[in-house]
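> forwarded from #structure-qc
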């Protein structure tokens, strides 16, 4: 059989692997007399410019970084209709095959492989490159357990919304079991998205299975976004606690709760104590059950500090009782016992605002969750209503997540199901009449009859019930009737007061309004906000305009100002056909707020040069990007003058 030769030097000898877009051959470089691997784009994709561009981009991105744990790219070329990449030949096998054959892997071995992958990602991230497809299939393990990551076909330097349709399709379809919740939502992807995927890979090495699986890709994506992860020690009890903690932190649903960088994860892996087995006994696997021994007046479980204090108090009390018994002072003993009871009550049922674990709400009905949260003095607010096979009103996700630290008075944001179709009635419980009307209009319905009913639990002015109920199919334009709370049925008008609207006010102004309404100011919680100025009230626990009893407590959330600006990027294309002369110098300048002005691109070009795509990184919401050509005679011609918002990616 004739051997195929590419570029007069590369022999294609043996097929050793294949993927959705390309086939990999074991080959020989005749010029340098060495074995190499050559990836060849499948013939059916060579006429599709998007696939060709993705293939070309992979070679450029991979060739731009050098790391002992990244497969090296030596050359890239095209011969006829054959597009190929020449890479380092790694004598080994994919990590996916090792997991399939040997998992669960020894924790030390799994940690060592993970550390090497994290090192490769650290290098990529320092080059502002996000891999987006970290999975065992893309990690090659050679002799001595040396790990090398490959396949940068869908890596990006820009935000995911800048990716073309080919990239998005490949990312979702190829890596559904490993991609992050933000990838599933199509939201902002950053370095921590790769860390999430690496956490899933470590989980699979330790247990032999992925944490989320389902019949369809959509099922798995929803689980990444909404379901808690079963701790790996529930599957393999021999996992060290330190290593399990790394898995759980790396795979947190929220990016802010993960490791800030691959280097941070490497540090954590270096400190693992392999002698101590995992005792992650309070994982989320059974979290749908309420906390044990809870009653109607229950509070978060006793902390270790409280337990120690209680034991000390009990020991002192026992000595005191023994002494009083000897003296026969019965009355004094009663006083001491009463003091002990009061002291223990303060320890077991503290009134301070110490942090405690957020309860698990996913799968609960929203109205039931509202009642449940009252036990913890927490509040809930619907963020989004999503089409889902779950019954209408079922909570699909929550923020803060279960088991994270919260304080009394906080508001939990939840996403709930609106039923299995867009043509279903949204959930209106617990919102004001005006909000209910707005929600119905956005969903394509109209507000129908409004009736009133006394309620002991729902504040006046809020919706108690609706007809048709949430989730029912209903033609667009139809009317939905609501029942609004009239407040408690007993108690004269003199015992009630109207809740003022103190949002957007300073704390002092809000306090004055609250005192004027004869209400009590409760806990004040701080929270960052990009829409409410620092020192102003973001939200309040009692709905403005509602009727409540005088002396009721109102809790506030106050803004600490906008969170620190994050880096963003935009891409511009330089078209040289607009030049007035054949040869010129191209200069691209960036004026990024307080960062000042700088040149980000200075090159010599001609009018016939191919267009350049320039990625520009910045932070300001009002940045300026200018492009001008300087000709040989000194004339300067301004070609583009852009206004850029790096926080949203908008460019005008």
């Amino acid at each position: 059989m004739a051997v195929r030769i590419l570029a007069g030097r590369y022999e294609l000898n043996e097929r050793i692997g294949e993927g959705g877009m390309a086939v990999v051959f074991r080959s020989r470089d005749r010029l340098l007399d060495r074995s190499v691997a050559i990836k060849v784009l499948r013939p059916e994709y060579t006429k599709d410019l998007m696939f060709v561009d993705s293939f070309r981009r992979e070679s450029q991105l991979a060739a731009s970084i050098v790391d002992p744990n990244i497969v090296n790219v030596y050359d890239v070329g095209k011969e006829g209709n054959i597009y190929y990449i020449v890479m380092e030949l790694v004598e080994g096998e994919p990590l996916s095959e090792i997991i399939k054959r040997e998992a669960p892997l020894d924790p030390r071995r799994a940690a060592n492989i993970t550390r090497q992958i994290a090192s490769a990602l650290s290098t990529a991230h320092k080059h502002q490159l996000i891999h987006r497809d970290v999975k065992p299939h893309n990690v090659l393990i050679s002799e001595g357990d040396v790990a090398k990551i490959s396949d940068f076909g869908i890596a990006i330097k820009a935000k995911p919304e800048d990716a073309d349709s080919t990239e998005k399709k490949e990312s979702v379809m190829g890596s559904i079991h490993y991609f992050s919740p933000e990838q599933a939502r199509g939201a902002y992807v950053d370095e921590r998205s790769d860390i999430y995927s690496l956490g899933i890979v470590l989980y699979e090495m330790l247990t032999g299975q992925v944490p989320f699986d389902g019949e369809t890709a959509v099922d798995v994506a929803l689980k990444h976004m909404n379901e808690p992860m079963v701790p790996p020690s529930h599957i393999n009890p021999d996992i060290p606690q330190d290593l399990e903690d790394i898995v759980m932190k790396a795979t947190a649903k929220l990016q802010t709760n993960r490791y800030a960088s691959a280097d941070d994860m490497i540090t954590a892996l270096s400190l693992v104590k392999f002698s101590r087995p995992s005792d992650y006994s309070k994982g989320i696997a059974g979290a749908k059950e309420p906390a044990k021994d809870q009653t109607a007046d229950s509070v978060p479980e006793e902390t270790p500090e409280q337990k120690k204090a209680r034991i000390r108090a009990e020991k002192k009390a026992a000595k005191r009782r023994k002494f009083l018994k000897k003296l026969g002072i019965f009355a004094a003993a009663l006083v001491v016992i009463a003091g002990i009871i009061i002291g223990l009550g303060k320890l077991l049922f503290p009134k301070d605002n110490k942090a405690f674990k957020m309860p698990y709400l996913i799968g609960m009905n929203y109205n039931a969750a509202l009642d449940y949260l009252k036990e913890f003095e927490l509040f809930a607010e619907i963020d989004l209503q999503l089409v889902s096979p779950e019954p209408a009103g079922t909570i699909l996700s929550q923020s803060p997540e279960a088991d994270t630290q919260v304080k009394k008075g906080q508001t939990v944001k939840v996403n709930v199901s609106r039923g299995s179709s867009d043509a279903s009635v949204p959930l209106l419980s617990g919102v004001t009449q005006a909000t209910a009307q707005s929600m119905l209009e956005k969903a394509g319905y109209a507000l129908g009859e409004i009736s009133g009913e006394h309620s002991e639990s729902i504040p006046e002015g809020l919706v108690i019930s609706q007809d048709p109920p949430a989730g029912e199919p209903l033609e667009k334009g139809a009317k939905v009737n609501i029942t609004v709370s009239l407040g408690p049925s007993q108690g004269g008008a003199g015992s009630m007061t109207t809740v003022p609207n103190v949002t957007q006010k300073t704390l002092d102004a809000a306090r004055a309004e609250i005192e004027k309404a004869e209400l009590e100011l409760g806990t004040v919680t701080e929270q960052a906000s990009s829409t409410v100025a620092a020192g102003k009230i973001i939200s309040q626990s009692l709905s403005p305009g509602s009727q409540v009893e005088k002396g009721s407590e109102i809790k506030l959330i106050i803004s600490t100002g906008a969170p620190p600006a994050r880096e963003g990027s935009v891409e511009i294309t330089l078209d040289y056909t607009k030049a007035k002369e054949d040869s010129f110098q191209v200069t691209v300048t960036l004026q990024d707020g307080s960062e000042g002005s700088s040149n980000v691109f200075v090159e010599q070009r001609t009018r016939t040069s191919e267009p350049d795509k320039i990625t520009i990184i910045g932070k300001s919401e009002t940045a300026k990007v200018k492009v001008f050509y300087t000709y040989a005679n000194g004339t300067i011609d301004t070609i583009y003058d852009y206004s850029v918002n790096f926080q949203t990616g908008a460019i005008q």
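QC bot note: DSSP finds 14 helices and 29 strands in the chain. The chain has five domains: 4-88, 93-270, 304-348, 493-559, 568-651.
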